[in-house]
Each structure stands twice: as C-alpha cells, then as structure tokens.
Amino acid sequence: MNRPPFRGFRRTGLAILGAAVASATLGTAASAAVPPDTSRAASAGARTAAVRGCAVVYFDLGETLVHTDEGSRIGYMPGAAAYLRTLRERHIKVGLITNVPPSWGETDAERAATLKKEIDGAWKGSTPFAWEDFGDRILTPRTEAERKPAPALWERAKTQAHGCRLVYEGETAEETDVAASLGYVAYQTGRPSRPAYLPAGMIEWLAHGSR
Q1: Neighbour count for residue 204 (Cβ, 10 Å)
Q2: What is the Cβ-side half-sphere exposure of residue 191, based on CA atoms within 13 angstroms?
Q3: Pairing mode, if any, of strands 66-68 and 74-76?
C-alpha cells in the first residue's frame, strides 16, 4: 500500500505546513508599520481602512496553531482554539501563510482544499479546525521558489490587505524576522514567560492605530 503523502509530510517536522516566525518583542511588534501599497485599488482600500481601522492576523500553521503527535495525528496547539475564537468574537480577520507542495493545486484555493483534506483526515479531538475563519486568506507557494522563508507569500498577503495593519504569528524566528522586515507586526509564539499568542487587545490597538 502506498503511504499517504501527508504522513511523510508531517514527519519532516511540519516543514511543509510552515515552519516559523520571527522574534519581535511586544514593544517591537507594537511599533512595526505596514508600508503603503502604491496601486490604485490598494490606495482606495487604504483610505477605507484608515476610516474604520482594521488588522489582519496571518499565522503559520504547523506548531503554531496545530501540533502533530508521535502517532501522526494532529490537533490544536494549547490555547489556539480559544485564541481563534477570541479573534472571531472581536471581528478580527485571520489568514494562513503556510508551505505546502506546489503540486497540490494550480491555485491557492486548490492547494488549500488539499490541505484541509489532509488536516481533517488526521485530526484528533472533538473541536474541528476553524477553517471557516480563514476564508480565502490561505496563501501557499505556487512554486518551490516561493516557499517560506522566501518573502513571496508575505508580499502577496500585503497586496490583499487594503491598508489594514498586518500581523504575522509563528513559532520560529527566521520567518518572523522576514515578516517584520516587510512591515508586519511579527510575534514569535511558544516562547517562555510571554503570552502564547499576541494578545487580542494589542491587535485591536494596532488596528485603531491605522486610522
């Protein structure tokens, strides 16, 4: 019997699901700004965002929101489900920037559909992963050259932001450093003596600061 592709995929330490994120402190995160997009559509969106204030929080997936156990089953990282629920209740948009094989589809939507199938097929626990929160904001590499930590996925997310403040949360410093260099508020998850995720109140403060 052929081995399911996602099983080997998980054994590589979820490198394909998206490794990492940067080492910004809360103070650095609060001061990061998103450079303006010069396109006409983005400028119009930026004016709208400036009136109401908004933020979009992008996450890495593996070992940031979901964890793989030794049996290759996956589930929420501690606190992840509650955190997503809090962001949902506060009407803060979320997205994923995660590495998957480009062969999983021709478009982000096709690759996201395969990712959902693989995740759901190995999911443990009674609470399913909250895919509906992410909408069409699941960005994946179109080519091997776009795989993180290459900046392509973060740059693509910026073109869709319409002037909103952008946050990136992930578990490794390499990726959060790249995100911060591109103007994201970057927060490295899973570090001792600090919140598991960037507090929702801080994200709301950042959003209102974009007015």
Answers
A1: 16
A2: 18
A3: antiparallel
Tokens 């070992």 identify what position? 63
Q: What is the dihedral of CA 10, 13, 15, 21, to 10 degrees?
A: 130
Print the domain residue range for 156. Answer: 5-208
CB 136 within 8 A of CB 109: yes
Report the chain (211 residues): mean pLDDT per 10 consecutive residues.
Answer: 36 35 36 36 40 84 90 90 97 97 97 97 92 97 98 97 95 97 97 96 88 47
**Backbone phi and psi for residue 201, each to the nearest 5 degrees, phi listed first:** -60, -35
Between helix 200-208 and helix 80-89 the angle, nearest 10°, is 30
Number of domains observed in the structure of the chain: 1
Rounded CA gap, 208 and 154, in Å?
A: 22
CATH number, domain of 105, equals: 3.40.50.1000
- Using an 8 Å Cβ cutoff, are 137 and 160 in contact? yes
Least Cα distance to 62 among 100, 94, 25, 90 occurs for: 100
With 0-12 CB in 10 A as exposed, 13-18 as middle and 19+ as buried, what is 2? exposed
> What is the pTM assigned to this prediction?
0.77
CB of 34 within 8 A of CB of 69? no
* 23 token code pair: 């080492």
